[in-house]
């Protein structure tokens, strides 16, 4: 439904319409004067042809030369001849504002509003856009509130070489079933310092748990929901962080990959969308591959890692969710 124009726009449209009508009247006047001038010339030429004497035969040794007709110069119209109603008296002659006004006026005369509407009606309807790659609304997480309340067992330590986390106790003494899902849920944060605390804290916790499968396997079902929510945002930065977290979970301990096989249907649906979302043709010099920020490459690496660590049933479940995937195990 078209919105009503504002008062200033309506006034400007009325002025343009008045200018166009005045220009059309001026063109009609010029056309009528030109047609009358042509009619006078035609009548004059007929009268001269009727009154002209017959050409006398040339004498011996002489040639007949036809009289030269005078060429009429084309009629030119200067700006001074235009009526004062067309030219805006408030603008200076030859100024930039006046030239801009005239260009806008000419553009509107070439393509009028009615012509644009007719063209718009004749355009074929392509249908609605699916928007499968469109970013969705990120669901709120409790991580910033927990951080402000002081419920996390860490704080930011500012150093000259960069920021780091300072923990109140050794990491293996913490309750992994309580804190590991909290830090993993915070990877959806995009504000500082919550983003740094969540991702750095999760990396340090999962790195310290290597060799201790009892720290990761009991809380594995609680880690699926944060990863799925991060993947469903379809934000490239958050999706890439979720893929990196999933890779670190799989590589943390032996047997974690096989324990993840029942949860493939919750995680691989979004990976199927971004499986072919590559910005290159495999060139290692490409910036996205060198920096590890190419989303399609990260999805492929994650699927290959899941297949290698998921046991004999991993490829069948991956192929069911990502049909374009090919096995990397010989």
Automatic annotation (TrEMBL):
Biased composition (Low complexity): 51-66
InterPro entries according to UniProt: ARM-type_fold (IPR016024), Parkin_co-regulated_protein (IPR019399)
Stretches for region Disordered: 38-76
Name of this chain's protein: ParcG-like protein
Organism encoding this protein: Aureococcus anophagefferens
